[in-house]
Amino acid sequence: MALRIDLHTHSDRSDGMLSPQQLVALAAARQVALLALTDHDTLSGCEPARAACAAAGIDFVAGVELSSQWREREIHVVGLRVDLADAGLRSHCEAVLQRRRQRIEAMAQRLSRAGLPGAELAARALRSPSPTRMHLARALCSLALCNSSEQAFQRWLQRGRPGYVPALWPELAAAVQRIVDAGGIAVLAHPHRYRLSAGAQRELVAAFKQAGGEAIEVSLAGMAQRDAERAASLARRFGLAGSVGSDFHEPDLPWRPLGRFAKLPDLVTPIAARLVP
Ligand code: MN
Ligand code: MN
Ligand code: MN
Q1: Pairing of strands 215-220, 73-80
Q2: How confident is the model over 22-32, as a mean pLDDT?
Q3: How far is the CA of 8 from the centre of ligand 1 (A)?
Q4: What does the domain layout of the chain look like in residue ranges?
Q5: Which of 191, 215, 249, 251 is least enclosed by beta carbons within 10 angstroms?
Q6: 251-258 contacts: CB < 8 A, separation 24 or more?
Q7: Which ligand has the minimum distance to the alpha carbon of residue 193?
Q8: CA 245/CA 48 separation, integer angstroms
């Protein structure tokens, strides 16, 4: 059996549902041999995940998923094998977390003006060290104000809805540079999710490479074959390695199972080869 590798996962240190230890236990049960934890804009789960992986015999990669912007779009950059002690990366994350908290508070105020219990929603969302709109969605559900997080986004949280406040992320090039400066490998996350034309997608990948990016996700759980082929062709065209992951958040979302995804397309260099100790 081929080594099972997962280089994109989330714990409850950002918007995942499992603690780092629970995530590692699930990865062990799924026979994952190489695991990266890549929480949104925080490194805080990496030490406990590393310890749990050591106990479970899993090779661990310290990671992060940085939110950034490029041409007013939100672009995610995964950093792999980053130095957890790097001061530049740590202060970058802290500044982004501060902005995340401010955004949640601003969104909660808007929800209050729309007649919802904004203070309570904010208090619940802000329990997370890296609060996201998903936390507001879950708070709306747990107060029985919505039936599902999809409905919460559609009614209240997405662009054009009453609770929406735009995010202000660091520039793409700055996020890539932080990862590179922390000794990490910058990976362009889920290129198929940005709703870009083929031409704009190439321009994004060119800008990413120019900034120091080294890899692109070419195989993610639930990725359509056509999207995987397009990502693989971008990898070849720009000389980027390929990365694979589940973007795991929670056990009961069947389309993002931990450690299960299509195999790497032919002719793409796997980034995982550089991560095995
Ligand atoms: Mn997420
Ligand atoms: Mn992402
Ligand atoms: Mn992710």
Answers
A1: unpaired
A2: 94
A3: 10
A4: 4-92+171-274, 97-157
A5: 251
A6: 251/17, 251/18, 251/26, 255/221, 255/222, 256/221, 256/222, 257/30, 257/221, 258/6, 258/9, 258/23, 258/26, 258/27, 258/30, 258/32
A7: 2
A8: 20
Length of the chain in terms of residues written: 277
Judge residue 84's burial from the number of C-beta atoms within 10 Å of its C-beta, 0-12 exposed, 13-18 middle, 19 or more buried: middle
Give the amino acid at 84.
L
* 245/265 Cα distance (integer angstroms): 14
Looking at the CA of 14, name the nearest ligand. Answer: 1
Q: Which of 6, 97, 5 is nearest to 43 (CA)?
A: 97
For the domain made up of 4-92+171-274, the CATH class stated in words is alpha beta
Ligand nearest to the CA of 248: 3
CA of 130 to the centre of ligand 1 (A): 10
Report CA(65)–ligand 2 centroid distance (Å).
Answer: 7
Between the CA of 145 and the centroid of ligand 3 the distance, in Å, is 26
Ligand nearest to the CA of residue 221, numbered in listed order:
3
Whole-model pTM over 0.90: yes
Instruction: Measure 247 CA to ligand 3 centroid, in angstroms.
Output: 5
pLDDT tens per residue, range 209-260 = 999 999 999 988 888 889 999 999 999 999 999 999 999 998 876 666 777 7
The bound ligand whose nearest atom lies closest to the alpha carbon of 64 is: 3
Question: CA 120, 123, 127: angle at the middle one, nearest 5?
Answer: 145
Cα separation of 40 and 201, whole Å? 22
Estimate the share of the chain in helix, then strand, then coil, as percent rounded to the nearest 5: 45, 20, 40
